[in-house]
Queue: 2 jobs
Job 1
Amino acid sequence: MKIAVLPGDGIGTEIVAEALRVLEVLDLSFETESALVGGAAYEAHGHPLPESTLKLAKEADAVLFGAVGDWKYDKLERSLRPEQAILGLRKNLGLFANFRPAICYEQLVDASSLKPELIAGLDILIIRELTGDIYFGQPRGRRTAVDGHFPGAEEAFDTMRYSRPEVERIAHVAFQAARKRSKRVTSVDKANVLETFQFWKDIVTEVGKEYPDVELDHMYVDNAAMQLVKAPKKFDVVVTGNMFGDILSDEAAMLTGSIGMLPSASLNSSNQGLYEPSHGSAPDIAGKGVANPLATILSAAMMLRFSLNQPEAADRIESAVKHVLAQGLRTADIWSAGTTKVGTREMGDAVVAAITKKTITG
Ligand code: NAD
């Protein structure tokens, strides 16, 4: 097993270091190799995703990614900005399925802005299609309008499109994931207005017939946005397109209170994947040793489960995280009165200790 380690920028280096320490104490045989990505790669090689980094990622079984970006790169031309590295990795590795679990840990129930009874026990998996939709559809651009409300005016346009194989493969991913959970899939669309999403809905329905044991329902995206804050626990697996998934996965993430707790995985058809926390490089707290490493540690657990076929090791990490939360240890982002504030390194130490001392209870 080979893991490409791409810490990136800002807090990326601090949180990935803790995830690596956790992986090391699991006594698994894997090789890791690190490379620069994002702003750090731009500084060293003039590009956010150098050929050597891409080659390493392609050859690895999985990529453990920190975060990229810093406001100081905002003036660079778009193709050289740190965030382009993520798009380049998604494209070159064919990472079409993004998994974003939103789990509310019992001990953090008060961190949410929703009432505890609405989110206690929450466990949603949002599956977002990652390579199609209006984000990548051609043509796109600016031109002079020849029709519409203001002919002759300057206008901008994008193209929303999905092909049958793109929808079929993400639908299969969702149904298969649901089989390992509560066997319910909600497909989110805008079929009442958009041709692309009527097509999406028809295909998801067809694919659903191959999974008679999984319950399928369909929901318009506007209703899904409301239901996520009104009654989030009614969802199990949510599958949707790239743009709706982008927005809904952030909304679902916030249900749980802290972005510092949320892992993510992006997989291709051979289960090769890129694993990263859902948050960014947090330049405001970088270098201070206060970032929450748990999202990255939980991303490493997802990596063990999905790409490296080590589900028991993944369970051990997840149990260790629950254990340290039960001990009352909190980084600043999830701290509340009555709990113990710790830094990035101490939180990593506590997870390592929970694994190695076998003190895990739950
Ligand atoms: P951000 O997620 O980096 O930070 C948002 C807020 O959450 C900040 O206050 C930050 O301190 C806090 N935060 C984030 N992660 C945390 C953690 N692990 N522990 C404690 N607090 C945490 O988003 P932003 O500030 O909008 O963006 C900063 C940079 O990150 C930008 O350059 C942006 O483009 C980039 N970005 C990168 C990714 C990625 O690498 N996948 C994703 C989002 C944003």
Job 2
Amino acid sequence: MSKIVIKNQKDIDYMRVSCKLAAEVLDYISAFVKPGVSTNELDELCHDYIVNVQQAYPSPLNYVVDSNIPPYPKSICTSVNSEICHGIPNDKPLKNGDIVNIDITVYKNGYHGDTSRMFLVGDVSLPAKRLCQITYESMWVGIEQVKPGNYFGDIGHAIETYVTKFGYSVVHEFCGHGVGQVFHEEPQIVHYGKPKTGEIMRPGMIFTIEPMINQGRRHIKFQPNRWTAVTKDRSLSAQWEHSVLVTDTGYEVLTVSPNMPLKPKFIG
Ligand code: MF3
Ligand code: CO
Ligand code: CO
């Protein structure tokens, strides 16, 4: 039996609010992502914006996933270059040519909204830009599979098929997830796999699609802080994330904001 929550109209209305707030934090922080700024400074700016302007709570702060790992110590995740995800902000300045994922989750009215984008720091090499662009496109290729009656496996299959054409690989150890009154709830949505596998999508389900795509091989290792995953071969990694609602006819992206990047042209 499926344990996937079907959201009611009230849940959906609150999720629209939380998801929009998360996307608006990314709009807000984008002007500060420049060579010389530290990820701790970005963390503090986002924290203050979420708490003081949005009157919300940054879901990552003190988040516990596993009793063997210390609670997450910061309000946002900042994953630079070969960091795949859960990069912990620190005092090291970003430098010209870096790529950085900023992942924001905001908790408001009892609901979480979760979204992330890649940012280019100064002048970025063509291969690094291309990785960020193809990863963005792959997220949308996954989102396009969202409609009632489709399988969760269809999402992963579409993403994997798309990125492998470019010689990239899909990280297996982290996945998209249901999101709502719980930060990470069922189902787990892997970004690889076979069509027509897993559960069937139904109207009212809300989940994230957040492919992590490596320039080299897919394998990961953890940094000593136990949170941050990096590519084993030290190649670059990129990630984008939206929270998406299954509607009666298809999908609605909930993590929208005035300055969000446009849909790729080839997406309907
Ligand atoms: N926002 C991340 C995700 O997309 C989860 C971060 S958990 C944290 O699921 F504790 F590392 F912040
Ligand atoms: Co997520
Ligand atoms: Co996230």
